Amino acid sequence: MSSLQTFFGLLPLLLSGALTALEIALCTLVLASIGGLVLAVWLTFSRSRLVQAGIACFIEWMRNVPALAHLFLIYFGLSYLGINLPAWLAAIVGLSLVGSAVLCDIFRAGLQSLHVGQYEAGLAVGLTRVQILANILLPQSLRRSLPAFANYVTQLIKDTSIASAIAVPEIMFLARNLVTSTFQTSLIYFAVMCIYAAMILPIGLGFIRLERHWGSAR
Amino acid sequence: MISFFAQYPEYWSDWTARLLQGGVVTAKLSLGGFALAALLGSLLTWALRSPFAWLRRSAVYFIQGMRALPLLALLLALYFSLPSLGLTLSGFEAGILGLGLQGSAYIAEILRGGLDALHRGQRESAIAVGLTPFQAFTAVILPQAIRGMLPPLLNAYVSILKDSSLCALIATDELMLAARAIASESFLPMHIFLLVGLFYFVIAFPLSLLSRVLEKRFSRGRKSLRG
Amino acid sequence: MSNLVEPALLRVCDLYKSYGDLEVLKGISLELKAGETLSLIGPSGSGKSTCLRCINYLEKPSRGEIWLGDELIGQARDGSRLRLLSDREMAPQRLEIAMVFQLFYLWPHLNVRDNVALGSIKARGMPRKQAYELAEAMLEKVHLRHKADAYPEQLSGGQQQRVAIARALAQQPKVILFDEPTSALDPELVGEVLAVIRELAEEGRTMIMVTHEVRFARDVADRVIFMDGGHIVEQGPSAQVIDTPSHERTRSFLGRMAMEQA
Predict the structure, then answer these.
(1) A192 contacts B189? CB cut-off 8 A
(2) Which of C184, C164, C185 is closest to C176 using CA atoms?
(3) Which residues of C touch A215 (CB under 8 A)?
(4) Which residues form the ABC transmembrane type-1 domain (chain B) (predicted)?
(5) Do residues B92 and B172 lie in contact, with contact meaning Cβ atoms separated by under 8 Å?
């Protein structure tokens, strides 16, 4: 069957796009996780109204404006100011900023779901705030945030497709080029969907197993 | 900094006029997509809770499938791929369809969660009093469930609103496309994209805020019921 | 205070605490000698828990000083001014003052042994092996050594509170504060916790108890302070104050308690 042959012919190119997408997702995940955690801890423990307002503004801007707009702002907008980021970097920066805002909300909810008494007991026993955070608050709150975090990760992999709009050579971009050159639209999009499913489903299952493992380790 | 903002007055009227035009299309897109998502989502929820296993399973597969797919891929497939199968959709139509299909999976989960959150006792007491299942649903279950579902439904709409920006990539004349056109004409990308971000923010932020206020009010209401 | 009398271990000097417009503590002063057990009793809202929580600075007093021995707790002299210490600066001071909470506040993700040992390992820098030995010794004291590997959710309320007491003991504190330790327990579990507290008192520990258990206070505490409306109304040897109160308010409070606990 020539369709099947074409399908397997397209695969290598699309898979290289998948690799790019995963690279972008991984970099973004690391940056967004660090950013989100720092913001969440800062937000929970800061008593300064300015800090709380500032972080809140950042989060609201990031979450109420489409990711595409953020990417355009960073890629096209910054070049106006003389800062020319390569497309893949603009994608990582943009998605990381949005991701920090999303993860800040998730981690903060996890922290605040803990009873303040555990924090007080930590103080009473002579622990410093950092020690309480590291030994008591974070181990529990990160476990609680796991489902929402898993959702974020799968959404992130899908959101890498937006980077195609600024010509990052990930799957979507390569797929569109293939379409215009070969006109095999249905086959190509079918391949694209298979590849995304192949990336997302195992990750989803991995998180479910992690949840189960952590749940039983107590 | 000031010179940056000084650029705006010259273009203000032209830009806002064009952005508003795009904004109208965005509104139609997002509301249409949300309506379709709500409709399909309700059907999916009904299927999820049906006694027929095959119906339940089909609904689950559909939802899993939709959630494993990037919206952009779906939109491109609907716009570029369907013509070869005989159906040509405009960017706008493909947009509503794509937003509606993906949104339906999201909304089905919200509806299912809201209905499941209600204690089974509510339905049992309604039946015990002599109501038919349908009456029990409309008079007892739904009114209570809706209060809890309102915040996430608002969030779902905001999500669809943001996602509608992707329709610019399938040649739909909405807000983001208008912004891109202006950007390439005026060579002031920073200005226009900030402005369009503000447009989205002004619509989305009040809705997000409302959603959070309602969520707090709802949980407070439940606590006070328990005394 | 004559110099021939033993100096006080813990001194609360002129403590005031307000939450906005609400003044909860209106000039509380008390002293605690080493080895003494003091009980704070009084109606809800009298400020007794707030007073206790001010001693280890879980609440920051609006005015007043807390002295442990000759060390000022929670504040430092900056020239002529007093400034509030940060939580990090206060951590070593808090090691000396242990607290047992009404709701226990054990850490659910750690087993019993780790709950008791965590403070020693992190706050005192004790090697793990030594900390575990100390933890098990303290658990032995509260008769729960066999539960060292269990998790808090597997224990009854009374057992959890006893673990909390072991955790407080592991700090090797100079003073132990008890904030209504049995108020959240089912009646049949109260006895096992009171038994442990009694043993500690007989050992000569320095303790302050906020409690509703008036009969227990009479039997175990050396002195009793009755608080009402943010003031100390009456204080003295426990048997004296509880059996023969001199103030009307003390009398009516004790009367109500007697009826409820009969």
Answers:
(1) no
(2) C164
(3) none
(4) 23-211
(5) yes
A208 lies within 8 A of chain B by CB: no
pLDDT in tens, A72-105: 999 998 888 888 899 999 999 999 999 999 999 9
Homologous superfamily (CATH) of B10-225 is MetI-like (1.10.3720.10)
Q: What's the CATH code of the domain at A173?
A: 1.10.3720.10
Question: Nearest C-alpha of chain C: how many angstroms from A110?
Answer: 14
Query: Which among A122, A126, A129 has the least Cβ separation from residue C95?
Result: A126
CA of B175 vs chain A CAs: smallest distance (Å): 11
User: Are the beta carbons of A161 and B80 separated by less than 8 Å?
Assistant: no
CA dihedral C256, C259, C261, C262 (to 10 degrees): 160
Residue C7 per-residue DSSP state: P
Could you read off the pLDDT tens digit of each residue along chain B, which spans 227 residues? 677 777 777 777 888 888 999 999 999 999 999 999 999 999 999 898 888 899 999 999 999 889 888 999 999 888 888 887 778 888 899 999 999 999 999 999 999 888 887 767 777 777 777 777 777 777 777 877 888 899 999 999 999 999 999 999 998 989 999 999 988 888 888 889 999 999 999 999 999 999 999 888 876 544 332 22
> CB-based contact (8 Å) between B193 and chain A?
yes
H-type helices in A85-170, by residue range? 87-112, 116-124, 129-132, 138-159
Chains C and A make contact, 3+ CB pairs within 8 Å: yes
Two structure tokens written together for B222 = 């439940």
| Predicted-assembly ipTM surpassing the 0.85 threshold | yes
- CATH assignment of the domain containing C103: 3.40.50.300
